[in-house]
Amino acid sequence: MSDSRASVLITADALAAAISTDETIVLLDISDDLETAPLERAVIPGAIAASLAADISGPATKPGGRRPLPDPALLQESLRLWGIDADSLVVVYDNASGSQAGRAWWTLRWAGHTNTRLLDGGLDAWTAAGHQTADQPIHPAGSGDFTVIPGNMPVIDADEAAGIARNGALLDARGKTAYEGDPDKPASGHIPGAICAGAKDALGNDGCFKPTEDLNALYAGHGANGSQPVGVYCGSGNAASFELAGMYAAGLEAPLYVGSWSAWSADPDRTVAQGTERG
C-alpha cells in the first residue's frame, strides 16, 4: 500500500490485526443523525456510536448549509469524551455509502488529528471478511486529551467554488441524477461550470476504493491533473469528503466547499445549471 493510501485508509483485515495486538484504537461508528434515526444494527466490537449531525457538524443554517463546520470547542469536547488523544489511532466507518464516515475522517483531519483512518469498504467489508460484530456500541471512556486546532484541511466558500468552476475543475460528488436536476424544480441542478464526478465512481465492485492507479486515472479524467485549480462539493459536504478521501489516498489534494449545494441553492442570487452540460 502506498504511503498516501495508508495515511487515509485501513483495510478490514488490517484493522482486525491491530485490534488483536491490543493497539489502542478509538473506533467510531458514524451515523448521519442518531437523534432522528437511532442505531438499530450491529457494529464492529468496541465501536462508539457517533452522530454526524450532533457530534461532528454545526447546526444547519442557510449560509452554512446542512452540515457546516463544528464549533472547535464543542468538537474537542466530543473527541475527548470518546477518549481520543493526540496519538490515538482513530478509525471511522459507516454502514451507508461511506460518505458519513468520509465526512468524519475529513473533519478530524481538519481539526488536526492526522492519525485518523477511514475503514475501506465500511461495515460491509468488515463482515465480508468474516469478522465478528457486536449488538451494541460501547460507552466512551471520557478521558481523552486531544486539542482541536481547526483549519488543517483546505476549504472554499461559495464565491471561490464558483471561481474554480469557471477556471478549473469543480467536482460535483453527488452523482448524475442530482447533478442534472429536475426541470420542474428550479433549485435543483449543479453549480454552473461544475463537473459531474460521483464519489461512488471511485469504488470497485466490492465497495472498496479502486487501486491507486485507477483512482489517479479517474480524477485526472475529471480535471484533477495538477494543471488547474480543483475543488469538491456535493449536497451537504459528506459525499464530497468521501471523494476527497479517495483523492488524498491517491496523493491528490483539493479543498472542500463545506456548505455545498445545500448552501448554494439557499441563496436566490446564485445561478443554477441543469442537464448534462457544465453550463
Overview of the structural elements:
This protein has 279 residues and is α/β, with parallel strands linked by helices. It has 2 domains: 3-128, 3-Layer(aba) Sandwich (Oxidized Rhodanese, domain 1), CATH 3.40.250.10; 155-264, Rhodanese-like domain (Oxidized Rhodanese, domain 1), CATH 3.40.250. It has helices spanning 3-6, 12-20, 52-56, 72-81, 99-110, 122-128, 158-167, 176-180, 212-221, 238-249, 260-264, and strands at 9-10, 25-31, 48-51, 89-93, 116-119, 155-156, 169-172, 195-196, 230-233, 256-257. It has a 5-stranded parallel sheet. Helix 5 links the parallel strand 4 and strand 5. The longest helix has 12 residues, at 99-110. The relative contact order is 0.17.
Key terms:
single chain; 279 residues; alpha/beta; Oxidized Rhodanese, domain 1; 2 domains; 5-stranded parallel beta sheet; 3-stranded parallel beta sheet; 11 helices; 10 strands; 32% helix; 13% strand; globular
